[in-house]
Design goal:
This protein is an alpha+beta fold. The chain contains two helices and seven strands. The protein is about 15% helix and about 40% strand. Strands 1-2-3-5-6-7-4 form a seven-stranded antiparallel beta sheet.
Amino acid sequence: MIEHDAICRLIPHAGSMCLLDSVVSWNEISITCLSDTHLHADNPLQNKNKISSVMLIEYGAQAMAVHGGLKAKEQGDVMAGGYLAALRNINLADTDVREIKGTLRITAQQLMAQGGSMIYEFSVCEDANDNLLASGRATVIEMQNES
């Protein structure tokens, strides 16, 4: 299991903005993470003590970033920065995420990787009962170094 501090070293998010608590499994094409940060008082995604389900896209994006960071580390490299370029087929539960009292399970599966571009499918569920809260497809594009 990979814990929060190690996750923070893999992605550009730190402190409370690193939303994932642990990586429970990963391989060449997929990753599964857990998080209780939606219950933290200092969650940076909350507005008026509520977290819109649209914010779960960030949880999925961070799982994708951790996956990329782990793959790069395995190859003795550091993951290049990237940005979320497109979202498709987004499905969101109509809920205040703060009302979910259990752990969130975040999964991401890489569908395509070419150069610095990647396409992932992601989902966020309540871990205890598999209640789907968010899912979709995201395209990430590597940031180009300016010379």
